[in-house]
Amino acid sequence: MTTPAPRCPTCGSLLTQDTHETHSLLAPDERLTPWMIHDLPRIAWIVEYRAAELTDQERQLVRDATTRMLGALEHDTG
Questions:
Q1: pLDDT per residue of the chain (78 residues) written in tens, 0 to 9
Q2: Cα–Cα distance between 16 and 71 in angstroms, integer?
Q3: Is 76 helix (H, G, I), strand (E, B) or coil?
Q4: CA 62 from chain center: how many Å?
Q5: Which of 9, 43, 50, 51, CA to CA, is 20 to 30 A from 27?
Q6: Separation between Cα atoms, residue 58 and residue 75, nearest integer Å
């Protein structure tokens, strides 16, 4: 069985050896746009409100995304 090609966790595009470390939806000097940050509370509210309707796969997706965001904040050196 072959290993699947690495993909960008954000957009899903294939990563090559050259782009693996540098790929990003944002330019190096670009900050997160306000809608990215301001949508987080709304997304959390929707997940809370509709939690009973989430499939196991959707629940895992929420857990994984939350873990990644919290991990990024814990490892932030800025």
A1: 666 667 666 666 666 665 445 556 666 677 767 777 888 999 999 999 999 999 999 999 999 999 988 998 888 766
A2: 25
A3: coil
A4: 10
A5: 43
A6: 26
Give the separation between CA 20 and CA 48, rounded to whole angstroms: 34
Rounded Cα–Cα distance for residues 32 and 25 (Å): 10
Instruction: Decide: pTM greater than 0.85.
Output: no
Which of 49, 46, 65 lies closest to 57 in space, CA to CA?
Answer: 65
* pLDDT at residue 61, rounded to an integer: 93
Residues 6+ apart with CB under 8 A from 26: 32
Q: Find the DSSP H helices in 1-78.
A: 34-49, 56-74
Structural domain boundaries of the chain?
34-74
The phi-psi region of residue 12 (left if phi > 0; otherwise alpha if psi is between -120 and 50; otherwise beta) is left
The alpha carbon of 8 is separated from its chain's Cα centroid by a whole number of angstroms, namely 10
